[in-house]
Structures are given as C-alpha cells and as structure tokens.
Amino acid sequence: MAAGLEVQGLSWHAGEKAIISDVSFSVSPGETLAVVGPNGAGKSTLLRCLYRYLKPSAGSIRIDGEEIWSLAARDCARKIATVLQEQPADFGLTVRDIVALGRTPYRKGLSAIGAGDRAMMDTAIERMNLTGLTGRHLASLSGGEKQRVMIARALAQEPDVIILDEPTNHLDIRHQLELLTLMRGLGPTVIASLHDLNLASAFADRVLLLAGGQVLGTGTPAEVLSAERIHEAFKVQSFIDVEPATGAPRFTFQLPNEI
Ligand code: ADP
Ligand code: MG
User: What pLDDT, on the 0 to 100 scale, is given for residue 80?
Assistant: First the structure.
C-alpha cells in the first residue's frame, strides 16, 4: 500500500541552532520524492524527522492524515521503513535473515516466522532480484547487492512509505541506474535523498530542493530545478536541456565565472 505524506512548518534545532526551518511539502500516495541539496543542507535531518528518529521542534508530519507522533511505535514501524547510509553490523546474518528483520513489527513477542511472513519475504526477495543470494552473508556481497538487500528488508515490512538516505552512495553508475529503476513503481511512497540532480530529475516524480535547512522549491523536476535555484543552492552554473528518453530536464554544470 502507499500513503500520502503531508509536512507542515517542520523545524528541528540542535540547541539554539535551526538545522531545518519551516519545511512544508506533500507527497501523494505512490509518488517518488527526491530530496536534493548541497552537503549540510539538512537532508538527513529532514529524513530523520520523517522516520521519527528525531522529534521536531515545531511542525507536523502526517501520514494519510495521521500525525506520526500520535502513532504507537509498532504502528509507525508498519507504516514507515528506512534504508539508511549506515548498514547494520554484520553478525553473520544471511540475506534471508536480514530480510526477515523487516517482519519484526508484525511478530508477536518471539513467535516464529509464519507462512504469511515468508510469503512477504519471498516477494521482496524476488522484487529486488536476490533469489540466488538468500543464503549468502551480507559481508560477502557487493555494494549494489547490499543496498538491494536493505531495500528488500524495507519492502518486507509492507510499509506505506519508504525513506532512503542517499541510496546510490558508493555505487557505480550502472548500479545507481539499476537501483533507481528497481525502486520505481515499488508500491509504497518513496522519499529518497539523492546527490545527483540528473538522477533525481530522471527518476523522481517530484523534488524538494533544500539549502541551509530551508526549502528553495518543491514540485516537478522541471518546476524546481531552474538554473537560478541551482546556483542559489549549489553555487554552480548549470546548462539545462531535455533528456530525450524521459523528457526530464538534464543538467551540465560548471563553476561560475566569478571564481
Ligand atoms: P545533509 O544530509 O544535507 O548533508 P545534515 O542533515 O546531515 O545535512 O546536516 C545539516 C547540518 O546540521 C550540518 O551542518 C550538520 O553538521 C548539522 N547537524 C546535523 N545533526 C546535528 C546535531 N545532532 N547536532 C548539531 N548539528 C547537527
Ligand atoms: Mg546526509
């Protein structure tokens, strides 16, 4: 299933300092939203608020109309799954063990995995092309394979929203494209921070451009990613044309002349 997400006036402070301020946007069920912006813009902080790791200083986050902080932790875990940059320490777990962790919010106490859990795990494993790797240890996998395992774990959670913090980090271009292609049409609403504006433009329905903890724009890639806004956020000059296959804006960057 997929849920809509509505964020209103969201701020998070570290002590006195605002790390993100007055962030508002909404995502429709099943859409893919790319969060883009320079290093230190507040992307990870925003995502941490969205998956309820950080409690906002102000503002609201509603998932299908319900404020996430009013949900029981278990219900929240059934609605929101994460794929984070830090991967779990490898305690000799196999791919299948990791995907099984996604079923935790549905299990009663220490009950064994049931047929329903197994069916969800198998679906997630197939969706992420991991069928031949289920017995392998996480440590023995390539970066792209590990990332697919983390997404399979998230899918096994049957979430309404999946939040990913720079899922393409450390992947070569082939594996970046492969991952983003697999992520399209997953079912749940997808919110992912991405470094590469060309990838964000090609794969996301909507983008949220953050700089200095504030929203510079939100909308379709073509609406948000103007040369002016890109300059304001990243301090680079950009040339924009259209990617013929997708019709999405395509960018070439250079340092501004004043440097
Ligand atoms: P991004 O993911 O866009 O690179 P982050 O959300 O990680 O940005 O960080 C935004 C800014 O907030 C950075 O300057 C970072 O140092 C600062 N920051 C993040 N978390 C904390 C914290 N817990 N305490 C103090 N400063 C923080
Ligand atoms: Mg970050």
Answer: 97
